[in-house]
Amino acid sequence: MRIRKALTTSRIPTALVATTLALALTACGGDGDGDGKKKTGGGSGTGAAEQTVKLPKLDGQTLEVAAVWTGTEQENFKKVLAEFEKRTGAKVTFVPAQDPIINFLGSKIAGGSPPDVAMLPQVGAIHQAVEKGWAKPLGEEARAQLAKNYSKGWQDLGTVDGKQYGVYYKAANKSLIWYNAKVFENAGASEPKSWDDLLTTAQTVYDSGVTPFSVGGADGWTLTDWFENVYLSQAGPEKYDQLAAHEIPWTDPSVKDALTTLAQVWGKTDYVAGGADGALQTEFPASVTQTFTGGDQPKAGMVFEGDFVQVNIGETDAEVGTDAKVFPFPAVGDAAPVVSGGDAAVILEDSKAAQALATFLASPDAAGIQAGLGGYLSPNKAVDASLYPNDVQRKMAEALIEAGDDFRFDMSDQAPQAFGGTPGKGEWKILQDFLKNPKDVEGAQRKLEAEAAKAYGD
Question: Residue 381's domain is classified under what CATH number?
Answer without folding.
Answer: 3.40.190.10
